[in-house]
Amino acid sequence: MLNKILFFTCICGSLAACAPSSSTNTDVETKDSSALSGISLSEIDTVHTSQNSLDWAGTYEGTLPCADCPGIQTEIVLNEDETFRIQSAYLERDSKVEDSGSFTWYNNGGSIHLKGNATDVHLKVGENQLFYLDEEGKVIEGPNGANYLLLKK
């Protein structure tokens, strides 16, 4: 009989430990709101973007990865009138591609879409650098992520 009571007590204690505690949620809310104490919502900067805050117009260059050559020397020129020129030279080959067109800013003002005759590229605009984006619109990361970066001249 004592074993049954002890077993029942252990089960009840285990189940009680798994139940969510309402004080835990309150503590999290208190910590989050205390981090913002003294800051009004009007002071949080939601207006500045890469589009309106950075000196993004200019020439960017770098060497992008290539499946069957040492790399693709790439130069992109972004103009104030939202036009671009891209020049790509395949290293150790006699192959060069040039294109131009216009680009549009994404709604968040931090990324652009270059669209030309042979170009369809999505880039994140950073301080003096352009990051190539993957198909999901995210900066390419991982061991080769740094290879998908162009730096401003």
From TrEMBL:
Residues 1-19 form the signal peptide. It comes from the Bacteria. PROSITE patterns: PROKAR_LIPOPROTEIN. InterPro entries: Cu-R_lipoprotein_NlpE (IPR007298). Gene3D superfamilies: 2.40.128.640. Keywords: Signal. This is NlpE N-terminal domain-containing protein. It comes from Sphingobacterium wenxiniae.
